[in-house]
UniProtKB/TrEMBL annotation:
Domain notes: Consists of three domains: the N-terminal catalytic domain, the editing domain and the C-terminal anticodon-binding domain.
Catalytic activity: tRNA(Pro) + L-proline + ATP = L-prolyl-tRNA(Pro) + AMP + diphosphate
Enzyme class: ligase
The name this protein goes by in its record: Proline--tRNA ligase
Keyword Nucleotide-binding: yes
All residue ranges annotated as the Aminoacyl-transfer RNA synthetases class-II family profile domain in the record: 33-496
Primary subcellular site in the record, as a coarse category: cytoplasm
A molecular-function term among this protein's GO annotations: ATP binding
Record NCBIfam families: PRK09194.1, proS_fam_II
Top-level taxon in the UniProt lineage: Bacteria
């Protein structure tokens, strides 16, 4: 491609809307244009990058025996109602764009395709003989994200590869899951990114085991906790660890003490001169289930620890059946206004005890009459602890479970693991923290969707069973930007060779010089013919502008038909390290071809 004929517009200044380097650079270098919040036009250079990523994804998927297909982006509400996710996706997370058609039928723009593919499986898979089978597609997805930001990292429209596998049993599912783990590792290795595979929360999608593939970068929205021995890595949403040991309690007898102005843990431990590890804090939550039922929850946890709301939400989802619901629509710490809707009298905020009386909860059709009491594992072993007294300005000390307080029946790990904690697998390993951009996520779904939609098959013994399912997603457009976030310098993007829009750029410093133009044209033709994808900068611009642009757009190898031409040579510069060498005209093609092959493999 000749730059003189391309829609090639770079910006001198950083665009105001962009906060992180990769976002700024992709805009400045003319790879994309913002159309609206979370919506981008992918211009030709970016489209080439996206296609290269898609090709790598495709080749790794095909190598596992998965087959490519293309599913509709418009999906009927009825399928989502069958799976039970319509409310979660339209109300709770509210992430799905919905619309109506001329017959007043409700539709959604696909944020993901479990429902559609399960409907396909229900129609087409009859027998165990057809299993296992794995279909994937590369397609634009739509999500009405709460906070679209960072360009392609969190768009409202983005490209994803999503795949879904169907199996006769858990062992076959595990096999495909392991194959996907390998395929995803290969994809990231081939695209040239530094990544980590981590244990992940399965969230609203349901199911058991899942792994996320994180590209390591400071701008990442996810936190990863890992150990240096390489044996543990998990998303903080899911991570478990050993909390620091609790200090022995200084209290020996049960007592209620006046503790004025100690509604915060910091003020309270300061006043009582004790460690927060000897305090049980009681945190109030309000959960709304999909049937409208509201439940007030008290979580008792060691006061130096924090509640992990992802873990809590999962626990509450598992308890949904007891309240006649199936999913959590909202989980919040009730503010004054929310409290006023159900509390019969002012709550002793900051002084709540594990046994806060149920008569604080008013009567209401949709209101569970009793608190749901949960104790985090960290609070269970405490002896002679301090906690609230249910009376403002007072705490109790020297309390014990089974004596002054009944231990809540629901005992769970709902604490947030933090860097510095000891690892579960080896207490001498200390958890470290890193930021990551989630690029891929693989799940073992089990039969959640197949059971809900009635996608069954006939087993070898003639009986019917729901299909076992797995699902696997890679953010193709997110990956493109994550690559930039991991690889740039003050002059611009440094593409990994495998996903660069072009491998090389031939820069003609002075297009008025016939010798320069002739050499450049020849190289341009020969390089492309040899499979080295090459741009020709034949614009009527100053040499300095051309060099700057070549660096900004991040093409791996730059060939300059400049001064050394008189010796039959051209200057070749590597974008990654700026290393420059004069190479004889006759050797340029073979040299670059070698470098490209070496980098891509
Ligand atoms: P996140 O937690 O970042 O919102 P997710 O858990 O919703 O991601 P999945 O539903 O597992 O993501 O989607 C699979 C992949 O699609 C993700 O790993 C990510 O790479 C990509 N992806 C998800 N949401 C977006 C988005 N809004 N913009 C760009 N890529 C996205
Ligand atoms: Mg998301």
């Amino acid at each position: 491609m000749r730059l003189s004929q391309m829609l090639f517009v770079t910006l001198r200044e950083d665009p105001a809307e962009a906060e992180i380097p990769s976002h700024k650079l992709l805009l400045r270098a003319g790879y994309m244009r913002r159309i609206s919040s979370g919506l981008y036009a992918y211009l030709p250079l970016l489209f080439r990058v996206l296609n290269k990523i898609s090709d790598i994804v495709r080749s790794e998927m095909d190598a596992t025996g998965a087959q490519e297909c293309l599913l509709p982006q418009l999906q009927p509400a009825s399928l989502w109602q069958e799976s039970g996710r319509w409310d979660t996706y339209t109300k709770a997370e509210g992430i799905m764009f919905t619309l109506g058609d001329r017959r007043q039928q409700e539709l959604a723009l696909g944020p993901t395709h479990e429902e559609v593919i399960t409907a396909v499986a229900r129609e087409t898979i009859r027998s165990y003989r057809q299993l296992p089978v794995h279909l994937y597609q590369i397609q634009t997805k739509f999500r009405d994200e709460i906070r679209p930001r960072f360009g392609l990292l969190r768009g409202r429209e983005f490209i994803m590869k999503d795949g879904y596998s169907f199996h006769a049993d858990a062992a076959s599912l595990k096999q495909t899951y392991d194959d996907m783990y390998q395929a995803y590792s290969n994809i990231l290795r081939r695209t040239g990114l530094a990544f980590r595979a981590v244990e992940a929360d399965s969230g609203a999608i349901g199911g058991s085991g899942s792994t996320e593939f994180m590209v390591l970068a400071e701008a990442g929205e996810d936190e990863v906790l890992y150990t240096e021995d390489g044996r543990y890595a998990a998303n903080v949403e899911k991570a478990v660890s050993l909390p620091p040991e609790a200090e022995p309690s200084p209290f020996t007898a049960y007592q209620k003490l006046e503790t004025p102005n100690t509604a915060t843990i910091a003020a309270m431990v300061d006043f009582l001169k004790c460690s927060p590890t000897q305090v049980v804090k009681d945190v109030l939550y309000q959960v709304t289930y999909d049937n409208g039922r509201q439940v007030l929850v008290i979580v008792s946890i060691r006061a130096d620890q924090d509640v992990n709301e992802t873990k809590l939400q999962n626990a509450l989802t598992n308890l949904a059946g007891e309240y006649g619901g199936s999913t959590v629509l909202a989980l919040e710490v009730p503010d004054e206004e929310a409290q006023s809707k159900w509390a019969t009298k002012p709550l002793p905020l900051g002084y709540i005890a594990p046994d806060l009386a149920d008569d604080y909860i008013g009567k209401g059709e949709n209101l569970a009459p009793k608190f749901l009491r949960i104790v985090d594992e960290t609070a269970v072993p405490l002896k002679n602890f301090a906690t609230g007294s249910n009376e403002s300005g007072f705490h109790v000390v020297g309390a014990n479970w089974g004596k002054e307080f009944e231990l809540p029946q629901i005992r769970l790990d709902v604490r947030t693991a933090v860097a510095g904690d000891r690892a579960i697998h080896d207490a001498s390993q200390i958890l470290k923290t890193a930021r990551g951009i989630e690029i891929g996520h693989i799940f073992q779904l089990g039969n959640k969707y197949s059971a809900a939609l009635g996608a069954t098959y006939t087993q070898e013994d003639g009986t019917e069973a729901p299909l076992e399912m797995g699902c696997y997603g890679v953010g193709v457009s997110r990956l493109a930007q994550a690559a930039v976030e991991q690889s740039y310098d003050k002059n611009g993007i440094i593409w990994p060779v495998a996903i660069a829009p072009y491998h090389a750029i031939v820069v003609v410093p002075n297009i008025g010089d016939e010798a320069q133009m002739a050499a450049a044209e020849k190289l341009y033709a020969e390089l492309n013919a040899a499979g080295v994808e090459t741009l020709l900068d034949d614009r009527k611009e100053r040499a300095g502008v051309k060099f700057k642009d070549a660096e900004l757009i991040g093409i791996p190898f730059r060939v300059v038909t400049g001064r050394s031409l008189k010796d039959g040579k051209v200057e070749v510069v590597k974008r990654a390290d700026g290393e420059a060498a004069d190479i004889a005209l006759a050797d340029v093609v073979a040299t670059l071809k070698g470098w490209v092959q070496e980098a891509i493999q």
